[in-house]
């Protein structure tokens, strides 16, 4: 692959998915039917505010659905990935794998 | 993709799937408890005289198990937040077939009981109530094959106990009087033993999973 087409591939990566925290949220949601906010907070190591902000962006992009309710007096947030979200994640991984494959060896990787 | 981010994502995906199993297909200590209850119900029901106290115990066992199971899942295995497992289509279809079978049996049993010439007594009503209660219990909570078999046995033993009977244990005079039933019900203690072993294995997996979660979290915050 030529350098310009590699750049094109990198530029074509979905930026909404590419951000590490959002990628992490999508990866978790893609492997379950429904996930409570607490679990995401636990495994991501992100703060509530940071996680909420990324969730809102993914929800606005139509990649996830967020359901807010109460369990007793405690607020409960449940998330699930949409079909569009699943597709976006699969496309992203495919493109990134292609880009990584085409990258030239660096001295570090050559050593190993 | 073999960079650290991809490795972390792969581990996170595996971990999510493993954790989600404890919402549906893995019972852990709940399976151990269910297996122990099934053995107790089978042996006590078949070997001990059916006193009022034993009847109460046998009727309460399935209800106690379902409650304990839900408590363990929510408060112990999924204490970090509920993650519902994504069951494959074949599992979902099997589960629905189980529910349909239970409803079918409940309709047939109701017809058989109510078409008797004698008036229904309290035991008959208790029997029918437990048979019908099994359908929603299977729909909401008994979603793996082992859960279904053990739960169904516990509910059936409770139901027949209400009506004044118990399932016969092989080698007893009751079994000699009804060999087909004794042979059929012998599968329940066998499944109960499998259930206990599976529960222990699942619980050990959970302990390892908890370690993995801690490592992943530490890696994320480092």
TrEMBL record, chain A:
It comes from the Bacteria. Residues 22-99 form the Winged helix DNA-binding domain. Keywords: DNA-binding. One of its GO terms (molecular function) is DNA binding. The keyword DNA-binding applies. SUPFAM superfamilies: Winged helix' DNA-binding domain. Signal peptide: none annotated. The keyword Amino-acid biosynthesis does not apply. InterPro entries: WH-like_DNA-bd_sf (IPR036388), WH_DNA-bd_dom (IPR027395), WH_DNA-bd_sf (IPR036390). PANTHER family: BSL7504 PROTEIN (PTHR37318:SF1). This is DNA-binding transcriptional regulator, MarR family. It comes from Rhodanobacter glycinis.
From TrEMBL, chain B:
Keywords: Membrane, Transmembrane, Transmembrane helix. It comes from the Bacteria. The chain crosses the membrane at residues 26-47, 53-72, 93-113, 125-142, 149-170, 182-201. This is Uncharacterized protein. It comes from Rhodanobacter glycinis.
């Amino acid at each position: 692959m030529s350098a310009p087409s590699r750049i094109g591939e990198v530029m074509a990566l979905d930026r909404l998915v590419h951000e590490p925290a959002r990628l992490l949220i999508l990866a978790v949601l893609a492997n379950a039917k429904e996930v409570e906010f607490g679990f995401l907070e636990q495994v991501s190591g992100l703060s509530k505010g940071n996680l909420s902000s990324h969730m809102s962006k993914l929800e606005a992009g139509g990649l996830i659905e967020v359901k807010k309710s109460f369990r007793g007096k405690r607020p409960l947030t449940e998330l699930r990935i949409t079909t569009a979200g699943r597709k976006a994640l699969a496309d992203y991984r495919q493109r990134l794998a292609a880009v990584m494959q085409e990258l030239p060896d660096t001295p570090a990787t050559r050593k190993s | 993709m073999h960079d650290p981010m991809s490795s972390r994502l792969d581990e996170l995906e595996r971990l999510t799937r493993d954790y989600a199993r404890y919402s549906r297909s893995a019972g852990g200590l709940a399976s151990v408890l269910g297996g122990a209850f099934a053995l107790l119900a089978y042996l006590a029901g078949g070997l001990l005289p059916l006193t009022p106290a034993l009847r109460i115990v046998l009727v309460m066992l399935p209800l106690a198990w379902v409650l304990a199971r839900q408590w363990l899942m929510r408060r112990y295995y999924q204490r970090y937040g509920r993650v519902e497992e994504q069951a494959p289509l074949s599992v979902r279809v099997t589960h629905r077939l189980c529910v349909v079978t239970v409803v079918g049996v409940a309709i047939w049993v109701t017809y058989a009981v109510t078409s008797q010439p004698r008036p229904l007594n309290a035991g008959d009503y208790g029997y029918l109530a437990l048979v019908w209660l099994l359908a929603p219990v299977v729909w909401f909570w008994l979603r793996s094959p082992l859960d279904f078999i053990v739960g169904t046995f516990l509910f059936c033993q409770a139901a027949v106990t209400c009506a004044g009977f118990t399932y016969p244990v092989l080698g007893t005079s009751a079994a000699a009087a009804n060999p087909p039933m004794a042979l059929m019900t012998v599968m329940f203690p066998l499944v109960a033993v499998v259930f206990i072993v599976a529960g222990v294995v699942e619980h050990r997996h959970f302990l390892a999973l908890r370690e993995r979660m801690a490592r992943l979290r530490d890696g994320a915050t480092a």
